[in-house]
Structure formats: structure tokens, C-alpha cells
Design brief:
- The complex is a heterodimer of chains A (80) and B (571).
- Chain A has one domain.
- In chain A, 50% of the residues lie in helices and 0% in strands.
- Chain A is built from three helices and no strands.
- Chain A is elongated, with a radius of gyration of 22 Å.
- Chain B has two domains: 507 residues, Amino acid/polyamine transporter I; 42 residues, no CATH class.
- Chain B has 23 helices and three strands.
- Chain B has a three-stranded antiparallel beta sheet with strand order 2-1-3.
- In chain B, helix 3 runs antiparallel to helix 14, helix 8 crosses helix 17 and helix 9 packs across helix 18.
- Chain B is globular and about 80 Å long.
- The N terminus of chain B is likely disordered.
- Classes of the chains: A mainly alpha (80), B mainly alpha (571).
Amino acid sequence: MTLGGWFVMIVSVGSVTVLFFWCLWKVFTTPEETEKLHGFSFETPDEAEENRPAAADAVADAGQIGSGKLPKGAHEPPDP
Amino acid sequence: MAEERWSSRLGVIMAVAGSAVGLGNFLRFPGQAAQYGGGAFMIAYFISLLVIGLPICWAEWTMGRLAGQHGLHSSPGVFHYFLRPRWGKYVGVIGVVVPVIIYMYYVVIESWCLGYAVNFLTGGLNFHSVEAAGDFFAAFIGMKENGLSVGFHLDQVGNYLILVFVLNFILIYRGIAKGIEWFCNWAMPALLVLALVILVRVLTLGAPDPAHPDYNVVNGLGFMWNPEKVVVERVVEGAWVKEREVVGTSAIAAAGAGVRADPSTRLRTIGVIEQLLKPQLWLAAAGQIFFSLSVGFGVILTYASYLSRKDDIVLSGLSATSANEFCEVGLGGLITLPAAFAFLGVAGVAGMGTFALGFQVLPLVFAKLPLGWFFGSVFFFLLFLAAITSSLSMLQPGIAFLEEALKIGRRQSVAILGFITAAGSAFVVYFSKDLKALDTLDFWVGTFLIFILATIQILVFSWGFGVDRGLAEADRGAAFPIPRFFAPVMKFLCPAFLITVFCLWVLVNVFGVTFGGRPAEFSGYVKDLFIAPDPVAWMSVGLVVAFALFVALLCARAPAYSRPIPREELP
């Protein structure tokens, strides 16, 4: 392995490691961040709607995805 | 809401990491780095990460969230919202095609992981030679003949594929949040710890084959990270043609002695600039960034569309990216490629398929660990779980699209998508010879189409919507704003980079245009279609086109995408 190879490796691995731990630190130190951070693994509104007990369906509004209406609990109207 | 169930901050960041980390990190990345020569690929890879990966990731989160505020949750819906003319929705077809087609072969690789986990437990993977490991893998996936893998023994893919496929659809049908919560809290940290253990073992492997002392880990690291290459070239019909690459001081000295004895050969150092002049390398590096970050997939567009403006998409995107890169470069790359070099040497490493490297090399590493059968089984099982979280996320864009386009419920959408993806996965697993179907789909969809969609997205975000408005929109709810030096990157550098790479790739690899007097160089994937047509490659592309037409037809008939966007809702 050449000197250039060692340099590229240390800078690359070091930078992604520092970035990862910086993100960890940021999440741990920012108030209320846990409620605002998301990956792809949360329960989507269509899934929640499908899994909701029938009784809840009877009293809930019939929001339909794709109709332009907002799915229940997912959004608030955009700021004007 | 899901976040209420995740009680700790660690749980939240593991959830983000868990959804980001998958097979792309531990299996696809080392294969791509090996295929494109290691060092130069890594330089192109990091430039791509900074110039296109992160900016488009943020752009995609922002576009998805904004369109979601207006009840649109699929890629055609998002592009209908941003582009508005009637054809806008057709641009979004790519954002449905990409995740669904990738899912078709991704579950096949998932089933390989599960199969390896089981075969480690039964003692079927205790290899002591490269040949034995290669033979098992070739037989397991049916690499020698089409249809050979479709069997139901423990050492064939059939059982595992059915199990994995059914499991995926049960999870998506019954709700994934609980299972993924468990994975993120327990299996994800376990995978990271185990990967660190394996990394230590790989870095202390030394030279496992005494007959080839230059096949060692340090040279393996050199293959991956050295910016310059040393190659032996031979005169063929009056031109110097690369014969082989040499890595390591002793190998270079031996090659030098051989060259002095044979005047028809020479030793040449290829500088980094010369290596970086290959458009195929840039396309592959950008494609890997997109693949592993799930950028240009349509997945981020869909998931972001469910978020509110209070949510932090800046740190969400950055956390997912950083976790991904840590696993990919810091763990996946340092484990598989150096180990592959130590066992196979430079010639063996370069000749593997994109996803195949890890399956042939890692069993050899585990064979050199105490309780290797146990660690091997656990590692591949955890990898299988990590892959499941990724494959489930690939289904959501298709589900959201069918819900929107056909006005049907989630379970009906899941059933339709299940039928389509089952047919596609059966195609991939049957046409297993030389992994032609899988490799063809992975290139044309997992690299090429992703590249196209990512380019369109950044153009729509930066030029259509406006980069300043876009960044202001992204900053809503964020713990910190996106640094403003990303504004010119997103507006000028990123689109220019993508368009240049694409045009050069088409010129060199499709039309065979040459620069600097070098011989014409067509991409192997182009050769398979036009120069030496391969029926499986053509059928693979046909599968993609047929599905794209199906999606386009649904788009044309969907009222959700014909509805004019009210003036007050315009972006």
C-alpha cells in the first residue's frame, strides 16, 4: 500500500466516522429531536388506517389518499 | 405515531440507521469497488457523495414532504405537483419502476443471505479453499445453468426465496412498524458489533495462502485505496494492452523482472487522472451512492410525503447518509475487499459479479475464526434482517402508487404488487446463469434509471422550484439549516456533473466514441443488447419496459394525476 493509499483511506474512513458520530451527538443534544427524526420505518398513514379497528372507522373522517384530502394525523395544512 | 414508541434517542437513530443500512453496504459496494479497480473508484465515490449524493438526498426529502402536504404520496404524484403539465406524472413513472424492479432481485439476494445463515448452522459452509467456496456459491445460486437454483434442498435457493418473499409480504400486509422497531433496537447494534469483530479478524488475516505471500491484507487495502495503479501491458497488434494489475512491493518487483525478460511487455503506472477519465467508473460510483442512500429510488419521495413540516428532514437525511457511509466504507469496504484480495488476489477479485464477492469470500474469513460457523450464521442472518427493512421500504412507493392511481386500499395494493414482484423474482431466480438477469437489471435499473431520476429531481428542485426556496423549505423544522454553499452545488455543480457523466458515458459506452486514440470501448451491458445480443439481457430489459408501460398506463387513467393543482397549492 502506497503513502497515497494510506492517506486516502485514513481521510475517507475518518471522515465518514466523524460524520456519523457528529450526527449521533447532534441527535443526542438537540431538544425534541427524537420526535422529528425519521427513517423509512415508521407506520405510514395508509397502514395505520388499514390497521385501525372498525369502530374507529365509523367515527373518523373518510380521508382518502390521492384525493387531495389529507390523510388523518399525517399532515397539517401548508403555511400560507 | 411511531416516534412515541421509540423511547430513547439511541432507538431513534438506530431506526434511521436500520432503514438505511442494507445489502448495498456490505455486498454491492465491495463488488462495485472491485469491478471498477478500487482506488480510483473510491475517489469518484467520495466526490459523488459530496457533490450529488447528499444534495439530491435533501432535495428528495424536501420535494416529497412538500407534495405530501397536498395529499400526493407517490413519485408520479410528486412530479405532477412540481411539473404540473400533463406529462409531469410520466416522469414520475421511473420512481415507481426503480424500487419495484430492484425489489425483484433484492429479495433473491436476501434469500441467499438466509440460505447462507442456515448452511453455516448445518456445517455446509466450512470451507478451506477458495475453489470450494466458489463451487458452493455457484451451485447454490445456479450460476452454471439457468434453472439450476430452483430446487428445494438446503443448499439451493428455492426454499429460502419462497420463505423470504412470503415473510416480506406478511410484514407489509400486517404492518411493519413493530417488527422494524425490534430490529432497529436489537439486531442493528448487533450487526454493527459483529461487523467490527469481523473487521478486526480480517485486518489480522495477514497472508492466508503461504504459496502467495503477496496475497495479503495490506496489499488488499492497497488495491482498494491506492490512487495509482501499476499494470503489466503487452503489445497486441501494435498497441499496448493491459494484461494484469500488480499490487504490492514484491509483486511489482517480480513483474518488473518478468518485463525485463520479455520485451513485448512493459510495466506502467496509471495515474489517478487517467483512471478517472472513464465515464463508466463515474456512472458506477454515482450509481452506488444513489443505491445505498436510496436516492433517486422514489423511496425517499414516498416516505417524506408522510412527514409534516415540523419534522427535521435535514438531520434525518444526514443521519441516514452518515450511518450508511459508516457501514459501507468503514465496515463493508474494509471487510470484504481486503479479505477477497487476501484469498483470491487481484485477478480473482476483479472477476466477480456485483453481489457475489461477499458470498464467496466471507465464508473463508469465518472459517478462520473460532466458532466461525456460529458467527457466520449470525452475521448472514443479521444481514438478512437488515435487507428485509430495506426491501420493505422498496415496496411502499409501489403500494402508495397503486393506492393513488387505482383508488384502492392498502391490502389490495399489496396483493397486486405481490403478484407482479413474484413474477419478476421468479424470472431473476430462474435465469441464474452467470447472474445475467440480476446483473442486467442491477445496471439498467439499479444504476442507469436511478441516475436519470436523480438528475431530473435535482433539475426540478434547483431550477423548477428554485434552489433558494427549496433550501428554505428544507430548513423548516430542522435542527440546523443546510449550509448555503450547497446552493450553488445544487444549482450548477450537481446537474452539470450528472449531465456531463451521462453524456460522456453514452458517447463512450454506447456509441464507442474514443478519446486520445484509445480503442473503442463499449459497456458490457450495451454489448449484451446490441453488439452480441443476449436473450436474457433482452428479456430483462423487456421486463423493465413492460412494467414501465403498465405504470404509465395507470398514470394516464388516474384521476389523482389529472386534477389541476389549485392556485393556492402551487409550489
